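Q: Start with the shorter request: fold the first protein.
A: Done. Sequence, then structure:
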Amino acid sequence: MAAPRSFLWSRRVFLTLLTVFVLLPVYVMVSSSLKPLEDVSGKFEWIPSGLTVRPYFDIWETVPLADYFMNSLIVAGAATVCSVTIAVFAAYAVSRYSFRGKRLFTVTVLSTQMFPGILFLLPLFLIYVKIGNATGIALFGSRGGLILTYLTFSLPFSIWMLIGYFDSVPRDLDEAAKVDGCGPIGALFRVIVPAAIPGIVAVAVYAFMTAWGEVLFASVMTNDTTRTLAVGLQGYSTQNDVYWNQVMAASLVVSLPVVAGFLLLQRYLVTGLTAGAVK
């Protein structure tokens, strides 16, 4: 049965308005990044009168953006690798084995997502300072401390997501791997992990995006040498002025890795987010 013409036109109008609503901020960012500072500070013009690419060169000189970029890449990449690695082993154990405290473990993992992140800010700060004073290990103000901080948020969600996805993988694959001589670890890496690639990719993208754009903990747990992009963008605001054209240009530049990664992994991401929810 064909849909009525009124429904088709209503859908087109709605999707068009939704597209304009989504792309309008992007257009404002792009147009503002191509204007001189005096044009951006004045009345906004939808069609710029003068265009310049100078802000895209100035962003690297006004603040050490390259250093911030490297810090974010190291922190987000390490947090993603650690989160995915630990979550794979933990989710496999929960999905395939029965042990004492299994239900308590899964409930605890899920319950950690109910607390706002700001509640952990002061406790983590005090823990890092006390560890540094007692052992000399500098967690506060270091990349390692920030990586551990991000694991407290991404790891519980990663474990929970992979538990659901591993449950959807037939157990017959485990039995077939054992018949062929594989142990539990061999079955995990030779059979289960290849079958769970979409779910693992979805978890990795979530962990990376969480660490890449986080501001609150990065602004407290870092110093001038370990500052990340999310905090470093504040450097374009001074006591006298705000370099809005450079802010827009830098925001577009730092968004490119996430957007490119999302486009490349979109197929795996959609599959991974949906397959684990269907039994």
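Q: Next, the second protein, separately.
A: Sequence, then structure:
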Amino acid sequence: MRSRTWGDAVYSGVVYAFLIAVLLATFYPFWNVLVLSVNSASDTIKGGIYFWPRELSFTSYREILTDNEILHSVGVTVARTLIGTPLTVIVISLLAYPLSNRELVLRRPVTLYFIFTMYFSGGLIPYYMILKGLNLIDSFWVFILPGLMNVFYMILIRTYIEGLPGELVESAKIDGANDLHIYFRIILPLTLPVLATIALFTAIGHWNAWFDSYVFTYNPDLKTLQAVLVKILNQYQTGSMVSDAQKMADSAKRLAVSSDTIRMAATMVATLPIVLVYPFLQRYFVKGMTLGAVKS
């Protein structure tokens, strides 16, 4: 075994220093948002808060979490994520499984047809007209049905299935299993890592989506959390465009909330739930991305 040299130590030190710098560069903005969100509004407008809150206060969170519009939008977003994520994973995997069969008739033309949709689209107005013709405008299902198919995710799952031993499917067919039985009893358990990865991506997409709610719904009861938060951010953005004299006056009044604290608290409310979910899916995420990366 080769002994560790001085050059190896220097190289390791440089690598670790670089990784620590990347960690700090990516983590600090999130930490600063958290610090500003739990700091007193009258103190925040003075500036100079970087690592720790000077005056701890959860007033901004109380203002946001007691707002009926926000609470209702959280329910809509949670329902959208819980319904849309499993349906999307099932639909995509149901398409990926037959397309992974090299003996499927018209396999290549069908695959090219779906790939074509990745690069070309009719634009927003034709898309809106299609949704209107399907009576999906101002409907909860406008969040679910149009996004059931994602071609990129389908290709990932198909590639993963193609890497599985073909003998498993062949032996199941010899024993009399049909395609549905093979799909639910063999393919789904074996593709759990990549399906968990796709589920994580899909859940993040549903949770962070706001444009479809902003454009395709008019009923306030159908607004998602992100759409409501966009409105809040725009509303309080104007509050941050005041003069220094006005800021000093506001500080003297000991304001309970300010544009900065509300915006930061709103950002944390939208970010924390999906961040807390990630650790539970991380092992599947890593395994799903690495096992499907190389074909034997």
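Q: Describe the second briefly.
A: Confidence is low (pLDDT under 50) at residues 247-255, 291-296. DSSP finds 14 helices and no strands in the chain.
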